Amino acid sequence: MPSYTAPTRDIQFVLHDVLDIAAAKISGHADLDRDFTAAILEEAGKVASEVLAPLNAVGDTMGCRLENGVVHTPTGFDRAFAAMRDGGWNGLDIPEEFGGQGLPYVLGTAVGEIFVSANMAFNMYQGLTHGAVSAILAHGTEEQKATYVPKMTSLEWTGTMNLTEPHAGTDLGMLRTKAEPRNDGSYAITGQKIFISAGDHDLAENIIHLVLARAPGGGEGTRGISLFIVPKFLVNTDGSLGARNAVSVGKIEEKMGIHGNATCVMDYDGATGFLTGELHKGMRAMFTMMNEARLGVGLQGYAQAEAAYQNAVIYARDRLQGRDVTGPKNPDGPADPIIVHPDIRRSLMDQKSFVEGARAFTLWGAHLIDRSHRADDAAAEGLVSLLTPVIKGFLTDKGFDATIAAQQVYGGHGYIEEWGMSQFARDARIAMIYEGANGIQALDLVGRKLAQDGGKHVLAFFEMVKTFLKEHDGDAALKADFLDPLKAASKDLQAAAMYFMQKGMKNPNNALAGSTDFLHMFGHVCLGLMWARMAIAAQKALDADTTDPEFLKTKLATGRYYMARQLPATALHLKRIQSGADTVMALDAAAF
Amino acid sequence: MPSYTAPTRDIQFVLHDVLDIAAAKISGHADLDRDFTAAILEEAGKVASEVLAPLNAVGDTMGCRLENGVVHTPTGFDRAFAAMRDGGWNGLDIPEEFGGQGLPYVLGTAVGEIFVSANMAFNMYQGLTHGAVSAILAHGTEEQKATYVPKMTSLEWTGTMNLTEPHAGTDLGMLRTKAEPRNDGSYAITGQKIFISAGDHDLAENIIHLVLARAPGGGEGTRGISLFIVPKFLVNTDGSLGARNAVSVGKIEEKMGIHGNATCVMDYDGATGFLTGELHKGMRAMFTMMNEARLGVGLQGYAQAEAAYQNAVIYARDRLQGRDVTGPKNPDGPADPIIVHPDIRRSLMDQKSFVEGARAFTLWGAHLIDRSHRADDAAAEGLVSLLTPVIKGFLTDKGFDATIAAQQVYGGHGYIEEWGMSQFARDARIAMIYEGANGIQALDLVGRKLAQDGGKHVLAFFEMVKTFLKEHDGDAALKADFLDPLKAASKDLQAAAMYFMQKGMKNPNNALAGSTDFLHMFGHVCLGLMWARMAIAAQKALDADTTDPEFLKTKLATGRYYMARQLPATALHLKRIQSGADTVMALDAAAF
Q1: Three-state SS letters, A521-543
Q2: Which pTM value belongs to this model?
Q3: Residue of B nearest to A197 (CA)
Q4: A206-214 and A157-162: which strand pairing?
């Protein structure tokens, strides 16, 4: 069975050496010194290794079952959920007035990585609750906040997001679930929602569903949609649970992975719902949640890759097969460990350099969200809005690839479920799909975010990279290995953006046919930037005569690998983009 | 549930317009006119669509079960196997004297694609039998051939290959299964084999296991290994079945996919075995089988991609979501079919251009095997030996990627098992691993095949591409779209080979660290060559005023896509290769 150890040293490096979060001019950040965050991360790591990771395979094997309308989670999930509740983990970054600890989102994200690596399916019960809390805090009335948020912060209750219907996935304007106003100000919600993660379960006494539905008078398409709170059990004015609401589970889907999480068909049959946010502006309410939700899914991509990578390393050190071509490394044994072989190394370096770059990218994104939400930094808000589809799309595509690479290290054993490597891949696969399939992320990036506010944010990004390169221009030690490759990659990205501007005007397909390539290219430039920043931080720490030089030297070597072997992919993506839409759109639909 | 329609028109195009198999100077090939092969392919397509494809999901869901030492296959497999037996499909390319039809291997391969696309797990029972027949025909005594081959050709009996042991996968030199000589000339085989596909089942009355084991006097490592025939039931001199042999199933593995095929732990407990081939030369005997076996696995990669692609196209034409950005294509409907969206097109073109290129590559490989085996063409033998790891590694890596892309077209529905797209990906995954994991293919290519016979075969390959380009130098219509990109890609491949020669001498890791990149690069050049050949064939047929111009124009358009969007990957692979081994090998094993 796979094991998991939280990479706290690595997370600490990003939080402090790279992002220097304690120095950020955001209220409360000055307290975030190394010892403080270390204590939290260590404790989260303990819960992850001892409680969550051992249940990961259990959840995969048992799955959830629906009996007499009630969803039962896998054995042991209830105990683990109680541990999450008792530890107060869900409230880490929720305001203190609602029972949370008010710590920054970046720290909640770091802790989230640890939990997701240990058990992705399990962590979704909490993750969706956190998302629902954010929605209610952003759009709910004071009464709604007081009624729902404290119980959800403490995980006595959980939350869900209900968007998709059988005929309306990406195209939410087609949704049909109805909301009929009643005299008491509530609405009767009727319709079917599908793919509802954590839709029902036995882990909490109540579930607060957030449901998109169509109230009268809003017109067709997305404009007519509003957001409603639909509790599984209605809540009395004294906070106690009242009547069972008319919402039920139609079935649990049989999925490729995340078996431990109940993905439900939810039937609303005149269920009582309460409008939250403005009438007919439910889509806008959902959109304000999107940066966090999509960052959370990008995190799932690299968190699964991290867990898979850790086990691939253990196996590669342990499995004896063949000899090092430059001379035996284990001469007294029957063969050398396979970690001696260059192609195994290549694969492990691919995985390692991706995961560490992705972690820095994600925590940087979370830090930008803190700047935006807690320090009213509009530039940070614009930048993270631009980067969100990249974090979601690139990290889940590449994260899945990394789980496949890790599985491959095991040879035949990787294909056998008992060894657990298949589960990492099967679980990671969903992150490319939900919360907006990655093609939609690419469309969002190229069709919307690039031109947002007159292209201001992408120009600011290029300017930031330029300034960064200029600032470190004199750093001869890092120039060839880090700064020059970043410069070249950034130039490729600019050339692609320029191509879209010039050719996309004439025919938007010239931009959209290159959207996924652009997203990947952007992802590489961001990871290249992260690696350059990590290299500078590592070098600085090394020069300061640190106590842990091996860690820092490894960081530099891993970064060099990424810059030499991964970052050059930007040139290929540019070439594809510049080939335009003609070959992509050449065929009639009937000719496929 | 997914459907499947055999792409007979496409296969015919490769067999006749591209490879012109009827004109090959190989005995029997003159009879292979279009009508003849069409009749066979159509019939195979019928069996595939009507009998095999409907059982694909059944096999996945039910799996195999072991009860009282007997393996039971999924419901309906027995009926389907009877259909394969009655149709004489396994004997298509087996010599007539052993009950086969003696048709070329290339035709057997084309039919194989159809069966594998329809039901990969099911087809393995037959595929492994075919491999075992090849081994016995190549190495067995006349008596062994007469005893086993006719019954295996007719599928009354099936066959298996037993190589791997728990501690000996790639490194077969470590295997421990013992073969102790008995006075009657037979051997007592004792040991445990794992990952034995089709190891036991209820589809045939006997199973002929081919087992690698260590007989006394051969020394250590691979030199001491011999190949044995170990029947499940011993065969009496009159051909009837005798005593049950001492071989049993330890367990069936729970796998990520191919659930319909029983992957068994096989326990040999003094089982009676018969030496086949020379004593202590079992590895060499296995190697002669390898080209065919590996080509068959490469075929699985693109055959699963074909099946997944077909269904992705159906879904993309059917699913209404969003609007064409250049104007509605289905103005009377609530939305346009998603096939209008450029990023969906890009994905479908990726899949289509890969599958069709891969088909041509594989059938070309099979044709080279015919030239080698049936016309004693040593150059063809050398070439296919060089290309075999490329066919196996590249087509299974890219084939798996294509199944993931096809699954992605379905959005959330792709992740739900009911829709069947997950199974294509889970089944295709194994092809990257078995019959030599793809890293081993890359090692075989770079460490062995490149330098084989003084590098003669790779030089011949480059010469062939050069001659081809020269021959069509005047073809202005195809120059920019096909010939120039092929020339550039081939130049990249030569530069990589040159780099290996120069830097690999000093340090072999400089070559091995680039082995997977080289394999992929080689694969792209081969598919580029195939597309150039297909373009020329299509243009020629178009010029000849054919009755099916749409098919041929689609072929040209699909080829242009591959050349513009996929082939340029060679430059990235070259760049990675030329970055050398330093960044790959920088870390101590403990630093990962």
Answers
A1: HHHHHHHHHHHHHHHHHHHHHHH
A2: 0.98
A3: B412
A4: parallel
